[in-house]
Amino acid sequence: MIQPERVQVLRPGEPGRGGFVLLWVQSSARTRDNHALEYAVREARRLGQPLAAVFGLNPDYPEANARHFQYLLEGLRDLRKGLAERGIPLSVRVGNTPDEVFKAAQGASLVVTDRGYLRPGRQWRADLAERLTVPFVQVESDAVVPIHTVSNRQEVGARTLRPKLHRLLERFLVPLKVEGEVQPHPDWDLGLDVSDPALTVRALGVDNSVPPGEEEGGEVKALARLDYFVTRLLPGYDSGRRDPNVDGGSRLSAYLHYGHLSPLTAALAAREHSDGGPGLDAFLEEMIVRRELSFNYCEFNPAYDRYEGLPAWTRGTLEEHAADPRPHLYTREELDATRTHDPYWNAAHTEMVRTGRMHNSMRMYWGKKILEWTATPREAYETTLWLNNHYELDGRDANSYAGVGWVFGLHDRPWARRPIFGMVRYLAASGLNRKFDAEAYARRWT
Hints:
Layout: E1 7-11, E2 20-24, H1 35-47, E3 51-57, H2 66-84, E4 90-94, H3 97-104, E5 108-113, H4 119-131, E6 136-139, H5 147-150, H6 158-172, H7 197-204, H8 219-233, H9 237-240, H10 253-257, H11 263-272, H12 278-300, H13 312-320, H14 332-336, H15 343-355, H16 360-373, H17 377-391, H18 398-407, H19 429-435, H20 438-445
Parallel strand pairs: 2-3, 2-5, 3-4, 5-6
Antiparallel strand pairs: 1-6
EC number: 4.1.99.3
Cofactor: FAD
Organism: Deinococcus aerius
């Protein structure tokens, strides 16, 4: 079902007659468990009008490079095929996103879109709401529980968000009904050819300083990875996810980031293939509570991607210790080139550069060491965020901003005071070896 809390009218009015319904795809680039898609299908059927879809591809999107664009296009390739099987043509149009969507909406009687939580998407939707002359509706599909239904303010951390989410979870963690057949738009321009994503990336001329990662994007690969995870890895996920020397993680983060996989699909599949236990609990905690905590942070903190967005206590304690001597000092360029004295840090950075991902057990160590080895906390924050967004397939994601913030004390509590970190949590290399064979991990990647 499409719960009414998921639906927000951005421009009111009555749909026109004789036109078509336009689905603007932003963050939910999939056909399964896509509330915006099913809402658009339902409305097109109710109005007796054709349905068409559009995606605005901006080659100048901030911080995106060839690694990100190829993964994105692999998803659009699958999406075009999946929508076509339901009679819905998808146009991929290159240019400024709101301009391209506005042009696609000419003659439409209703525009429906999904919802992301970052500043660019919010600005695009606000732009379109001002310019469109027909009703414009947003349907939230990338959170299991709509974020404003859970909370209307920035939460302190998981401990305050968790009980609010759990009270609502059973109402929203239900299968989504697939609506019936729809009339296809008879002469919809499909725009960019996305059948060969690698070729299309080269033709777009985007920043190619970072090659594609190891994994392929798209809904097909996302569902295959989900099936492998819930049938093979979920029972031992609680412990298996902690060791970077084994394949115990879900590896679903990038699919969720690009909208190739719905969190609803993942949660329902995990429940179906599990009788409960610590593996399921750990997975749902990470994918629902922690992920939606990051949405809450980006939605309610206008400075979510800047040092100023960190809590006052963390900035205060870090600034108190900003002049403390550093055991090592590295520039961003030296870090990017993996020229540090620490084999564990070098291994983690190498894994990210080569594959487009970093094991979660190393992410915080990697970030904490940048804070320890950089001249000022502000410079450390900016360097950590830049490196993350440059190489990670799931960079420029709400989880990224919250995760980098956590390095600097966001969603955490004050700890015992120490040099450089003040009361922000510290991580040492000795802690790695207590959890897994860090030497083996370093040998693998260096």
